[in-house]
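PROTEIN ENTRY
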Amino acid sequence: MEISNLFNEMKNQQELLQKFLDLIYLQQKAIINNDIVVLEDLLTKEGAFFNQIEAKKILMSDIIIQLAVKYSIILESNNLSDFINSLKLKNEFKLTGLIKLHESIKKLVYLIVEANNQNKILINQAKSFIKQLVTIFAHANKNSILDRRA
């Protein structure tokens, strides 16, 4: 196992996260347009992405463990940040590409979290709007019934 294997896997993860972010933006558009059919399809695809992301996370952890053993690095946890910081301390590796890619992945994760939060807000606003409409219509129907009896 080599650092290049880690770099390649990080590239794969970056591509997967970018596709996931694109999917979340499509969900946002479907929520705004109230397109339930498209939203259901996208939610199904989201489940598949979660499975792929989890599999990549496990693979990345395995690669990090193998590289840590190979280069005699003791890690506090098997995460990428820890591993990169440990490599920096060794001063034996050119890490510029790895660090840039790691920063790109962190930015994508931040954007995914941000977009998901926006989607939650949109959904909550839609639910609130529906509740208000139901209340208005229920109240209007009561008034209408009372007016007919009068």
In short: Residues 96-149 form the longest helix (54 residues). The chain has a mean pLDDT of 87.
